[in-house]
Design a protein that fits this description.
Elements (H helix, E strand, L loop, with lengths): L1 H5 L19 H4 L14 H7 L7 E6 L5 H11 L4 H11 L11 E4 L4 H7 L5 H11 L8 E3 L11 H6 L4 E3 L7 E9 L3 H13 L3 E9 L2
Parallel strand pairs: 1-6, 2-5, 5-6
Antiparallel strand pairs: 3-4
């Protein structure tokens, strides 16, 4: 209580004092650009993924635009240690994502390499995934996918280097006949989710759908 008085939680955009469980104030919330994608309909993610691998359904919560509040929110989660942002994004997702009772069998998030996980202290996707799992009652497995190589942040790589990276991920256990919802933070080229999707598809008679916090296409 004393700490809340001395160091109150503030809106990450305008610096107004807000409740401890909020990220932005009501005024700034209206500046967030939600995609309003339908999970089952065509959208820019599905169009791009379809060129890379057989994809079932796709969804993104917000648009990852330059100099936008949406970009600031993702950076709070990934680079400023605010893991609780993942839970808040999950709460927003539940108001926009309708599975229409056609739920995937399992949620799996894009993993960090153990070295990167140690550096950051947490995987920015775990609390997001766990919160969605609890709401939709879909099981999750943080260990299903393994990242095989330690590398620089995806944003720091040029496109050619990303394409040249071979077998960056692997499936850690037998899995077949399942519909996997693969979760990532930002969708850009689609190369990361494509690499993982092919590992899942090649593991057995599986299906893959994609859910991301933000889309930059």
């Amino acid at each position: 209580m004393i700490l809340d008085l001395l160091f109150p939680n503030r809106c990450i955009h305008c610096n107004r004092i807000i409740g401890p469980d909020f990220l932005v104030c009501d005024l700034c919330f209206s500046q967030i650009h939600f995609t309003h994608y339908d999970y089952f309909e065509s959208n820019p993610i599905k169009e791009k993924c379809s060129l890379l691998f057989p994809v079932e359904n796709t969804f993104a919560l917000i648009k990852f635009e330059e100099e936008s509040l949406s970009r600031k929110i993702i950076h709070e989660l990934k680079y400023r240690g605010r893991e609780i942002t993942g839970k808040i994004l999950a709460e927003w997702t539940t108001t926009h994502l309708d599975f229409k009772n056609q739920y995937p069998d399992l949620m799996a998030s894009v993993p960090l390499h153990p070295k990167k996980l140690k550096e950051r202290g947490y995987n920015q996707l775990h609390l997001f995934t766990e919160s969605l799992s609890k709401f939709y009652k879909i099981p999750f497995d943080h260990q299903l996918i393994k990242r095989n190589h330690y590398s620089k942040a995806q944003a720091l790589k040029d496109k050619q280097h990303r394409l040249e990276t071979a077998n960056p991920f692997s499936v850690t256990q037998p899995i077949t006949g399942k519909h996997i919802l693969l979760i990532d933070d930002v969708f850009t080229t689609g190369n990361t989710v494509s690499s993982i999707a092919w590992e899942i598809l090649n593991a057995g008679n599986n299906k893959v759908s994609i859910l991301v916090m933000a889309v930059d296409v």
